[in-house]
């Protein structure tokens, strides 16, 4: 960036994730949190703070649920705004299709990734990398992430996931519906 070193002598080394790590059964995760077996899980893992776009995800969930009812939006994480987001889910009339798990110590051994159908990350601020996105991808999940910070470096549009403008609820919901309605596309992205 500063022009001190020639571009040919520099490179980016991304954080890695253990792709051989075993994952627990998704059924255990569903049972623990009371998620019906017939619902596709759309998962977001993050702090429950405005910078992570939980309100954007909930508004997109409301749009998705007008077209597809067999979906459960699951938020793994906690934070000072949890009650506010639970209230928003109630106001939007989607609380029965939203699960707030609180902090999950180990996503792999909890079965969260195995249970999920896809992973979303709705960040509103400049994420440096988005480790949970890399973990989700290594678990075989297609991802939908906001086009901000380092997140676009992880996603090849239409290949392993989709990007959306950070506050564009309509783009997020359309991409969720696209993956939910096309099992072949999901399998290809995974």
Characterization of the model:
- With 190 residues, the chain is an alpha/beta fold.
- Helix content is 35%, strand content 16%.
- It has 8 helices and 6 strands, in the order H-E-H-E-H-E-H-H-E-H-E-E-H-H.
- The protein has helices spanning 26-33, 54-67, 82-91, 107-110, 112-115, 131-138, 169-180, 183-189; strands at 40-45, 71-76, 98-102, 116-121, 143-146, 161-164.
- Strands 3-2-1-4-5-6 form a 6-stranded parallel β-sheet, with helices on both faces.
- Helix 6 links the parallel strand 4 (116-121) and strand 5 (143-146).
- The longest helix has 14 residues, at 54-67.
Topology:
Elements: H1 26-33, E1 40-45, H2 54-67, E2 71-76, H3 82-91, E3 98-102, H4 107-110, H5 112-115, E4 116-121, H6 131-138, E5 143-146, E6 161-164, H7 169-180, H8 183-189
Helix pairs in contact: 2-7
């Amino acid at each position: 960036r500063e022009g001190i070193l020639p571009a040919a002598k520099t490179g980016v080394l991304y954080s890695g994730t253990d792709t051989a790590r075993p994952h627990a059964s998704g059924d255990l995760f569903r049972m623990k949190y009371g998620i019906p077996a017939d619902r596709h899980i759309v998962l977001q893992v993050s702090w429950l703070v405005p910078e992570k776009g939980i309100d954007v995800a909930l508004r997109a969930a409301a749009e998705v649920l007008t077209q597809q009812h067999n979906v459960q939006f699951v938020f793994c994480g906690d934070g000072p705004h949890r009650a506010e987001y639970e209230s928003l889910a109630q106001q939007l009339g989607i609380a029965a299709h939203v699960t707030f798990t609180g902090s999950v110590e180990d996503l792999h051994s909890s079965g969260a990734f195995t249970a999920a159908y896809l992973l979303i990350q709705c960040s509103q601020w400049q994420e440096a990398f988005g480790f949970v996105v890399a973990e989700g991808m290594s678990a075989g999940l297609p991802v939908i992430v906001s086009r901000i910070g380092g997140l676009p470096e992880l996603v090849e549009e239409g290949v392993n996931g989709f990007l959306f403008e950070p506050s564009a609820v309509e783009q997020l919901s359309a991409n969720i519906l696209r993956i939910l309605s096309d099992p072949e596309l999901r399998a290809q992205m995974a």
